[in-house]
Model the fold of this input.
Amino acid sequence: MQISQMRQTIVLVVDGNEIDRLKLKRILEPRVQFCEVSFGSEVMSYLNEHHVDLLLLADKLPDTDGFDILRKVHGDVRYKDMPVIIVTDDLSQKMEAAVAMGGGFDIIRKPFVPIIVVKKVEQVLELEYLHRNLKEEVQRQTQLAEDRLAASERLFEQTVMALAKTIDAKDAYTRGHSQRVARYARHIAFKLGWLEEEQRRIYFMGLLHDIGKIGVPEYIINKTTRLNDEEYEKIQQHTVIGSQILDLVAEFPELAIGARSHHERYDGKGYPDGFAGSQIPVYARVIAVADAYDAMTSRRSYRDVLPQDVVRSEIAKGRGTQFDPQFADIMLQIIDEDEEYILHER
Done:
């Protein structure tokens, strides 16, 4: 603590001995702002009306015990951290233990040795200054870390959204597909009672499930007639391409899972790995239902949005074959609740 800061420090001496108060005043007044009271009963009212940085408290007072005042001061939430030095003429080691047990910061013994008094006061004030500023610095650094994390999360979300729109822009007939699949997948997860973090994860997986289409020729993606075997094989490769791209995101391995496995079927007849049942990652099983629902409720070059009853019938038909029964049932529940048929491409 700098000398200028010491001089701004307010020290309250509580001691019934006027001579001792005068001695402390002569020692400390050049260095600090000195205040004094004689009785313990005056301490709390003084603290309530004045700012005090340090309390020099006699262990024996005319009207009470100094330790009772110490407990009262630290028992008040406003002053629980106030530094207190006990002033005593007790030279025993028991006093040191009593001060520590009572919550005192240090001891100044009588008769006063000026250099020791000054040193003790400086040390306690320095510790208090560091403690106070450390708390402020921790709070500042914590806020900075939280701000950086929030900024990183916003950047991640914006980047994922930009990628999703880039993917959808490649297909003239599926604009907004990735965003809708992400929303439907998150809604299914919500209905399942998944934690907020899991809902967030599957939302991002839905946004990027088709990222592999970047590696598929546009003439195949936008072809309005039936694909031949070679073209169909190339379109299937978007799952592998997507997982290879997203494997690079080490901090979010689920992204690659969603991209690779969302065309697996519950009966094992899907692609690229032919997984069945619980072999298929759970996130991918959810996305598969959401993906199929959006495919039927979106416009295509050869048809408009399918009627809701047709969509419901197809989801029910795929239960246990194309789709995990549990997630198909949740999708059917969502369809039944959507009485106005709001959930489709606009």
